[in-house]
Amino acid sequence: MTMTRRAFLTGTVALGAAGLTTGLASGHASALGSSDLPPSAADTDFGTLLDYSAGVPAAPAIAAAGYAGVIRYVSDRRPDAEWMRGKPFTKAEADALRTAGRSIVSCYQFGRADTADWLGGYAAGVEHARRGDAIHRAAGGPPTAPIYASIDDDPSPIQIYTQVLPYLFGWRSVIGAARVGVYANAPTIQTASSLGAASWFWQHNWGTPTGYRHPAAHLQQLRGQQVVDGVLVDLNAIRQASYGQW
After folding, report:
1. How many angstroms separate the CA atoms of 220 and 17, rounded?
2. CA 100, CA 57: separation in Å to the nearest integer?
3. Residue 156: how many CA atoms within 13 Å on its side-chain side?
4. How far is CA 175 from the centre of its chain?
5. Is 126 helix (H, G, I), strand (E, B) or coil?
6. Dihedrals φ, ψ of 220, to 5°?
């Protein structure tokens, strides 16, 4: 059965209201799709990926430093962020990485803070999925590979239900459920995973309990940064053998 936008939004708001009502009665949210977290998963290490936007380290330098691959932005550079010389990802960079034997993961983030992508809900998800998938494919990304949509924030439960989940379902309507990934904190991952809003999960630390790793996380952003080939980069642990790489 195909879920319409109206049916999804109605159901999501109802679930959110149920969870918040239960939370008020018991002192914490405990309904389906709540942000209650399962026990932290044991650390696993399948290597480290870089993500970056300020520039583009040479693929041989990434390989020489021992990194397994990269997470790259299939999104445009914001007009107010000319320093983001590493956006968008290109086929020339992808070809160089693959020649160097490095894996690639696609992610999408255009806005930030007051212009965050997810603030636009379902309609923004549709728009960004179309643009992200176009850049992904132009760079040589397979039509089956996932794209991680960024929730680079610590949204409240109400925001998760009324904006984040609709945003992810907008992505799903364009690229399909199996390809939707999300970069988010552990509470957002918990809600999105329990409601089937995404299939791939990249955890960040903002709003995540210290030292916690969600068992659904395929990737986990690490604290601290490095410089590779003159470019400041973030580091990400690969937590599962299959993490959306291509």
Report:
1. 30
2. 13
3. 4
4. 14
5. helix
6. -140, 120
